[in-house]
Amino acid sequence: MYFVGVDGGATKTLAILSDKQGRILGWGLSGPSNYHQVGVEGAINAINEAVTKAMSMAKVNRVNVMCCGLAGIDTKRDYEIMYKHINSIELAEKKILVHDAIIALMGATAGRPGVVVIAGTGSVAAGMNERGEYTRVGGWGPILGDEGSAYYIAREALAAVLKSYDGREEETMLTSELLKAMNLREVEDIVNKIYVEKVGVTYIASLAPVVTKCASLGDRVALRIIRRAAKELAELIIAVAKKLKMTEYEFSIALVGGVFKAGDLIIKPLYEEVKRVAPKAKIIEPMLPPCAGALIMALREGGIKIEQNVVTNIKNTLKNVPV
Question: Rounded to whole angstroms, how far apart are CA atoms 289 and 61?
Fold first, then answer.
């Protein structure tokens, strides 16, 4: 029996193929598979290409179960649109489609119950309880959501600089540091950069480390922004735990994404907030990457019990895969 896990995002699609013991025999890499970005046909082509490459490397011509964790599967409509096309892929007998936060969860906890919160350019959280029930919260994009993300942190900082310029906020080192990072001379140039040049979400998110740096140096405005971000991310975790009725039990929390490079500056207030509602929750290091989470879901769907030896095999054979 052979199984494939697919991690499909906005920049690349990675497929890994294993036997029933979790030993990875092949992998394949292709372009983006977020259908909002490349269209349905582009997404399916990317998945087909990555899986075909993995099968070719493993010298396998048929897969029993394939699990695809894709970015952009945010609503029931998204799921319906993509599942119809995923189901038409003939490379695998059985196909599963989930949001990419779910495979991040399954990778981070190696298939065990817990919660993952992802805070990169955007933010989202997902969880699974002891009964195997899943849920996902957040991930609603930069206009309607993404609280606590790098984009959120940087946007709040830019807004604070403009407020400080107006006299509606205290003076902050964010002003000089952000102007330097953006290669600008005047505060009003920020408005031109954002609205005229339309630099976009990714550029704005890339400024988050500047805010972290200012907070670490004791800037009060930056510290307030980081603490607000921590509270927002904690609320994602708490919402997942409440939905899955986990707040009274011990469960693991995995923190994934560039925002957490700030370390205790953001993790400590986040954890304090979570512990008020879920006192037995504990933070863990993510055990495996999202592609391995997709593989674990495929294995489980194929009737394979995820014992420690399977997890060890996945971990040991992932070393040559560009995760």
Answer: 25
Distance, in Å, from the CA atom of 100 to the CA atom of 71, rounded to the nearest integer, reads 5
In the chain, where the domains are located:
2-109+288-317, 111-286
3-class secondary-structure state, position 4: strand
The CATH number of the domain covering residues in 2-109+288-317: 3.30.420.40
Looking at domain 111-286, which of 2.60.120.460, 3.30.420.10, 3.30.70.370, 3.30.420.40 is its CATH number?
3.30.420.40
pLDDT the model gives residue 71: 86
Q: What is the dihedral of CA 270, 116, 70, 261, to 10 degrees?
A: 50
Q: What's the count of helices (H) and strands (E) in the chain, helices before strands?
A: 13, 10
- The answer to whether 118 touches 124, Cβ cutoff 8 Å, is yes
DSSP state for residue 284 in the 8-state scheme: E
d(CA 36, CA 80): 14
Pairing of strands 252-256, 114-119: parallel
Q: Is the pLDDT of residue 273 over 90?
A: yes
CA 175 to chain centre: 30
pLDDT band at residue 90 under the 50/70/90 scheme: confident
Write out the two tokens for 9. 């995002």
What is the pLDDT of the chain when averaged over all its residues?
93
Residue 256: closest CA among 128, 154, 96, 148 = 148
pTM: 0.85
Q: Is the pLDDT of residue 11 over 90?
A: no
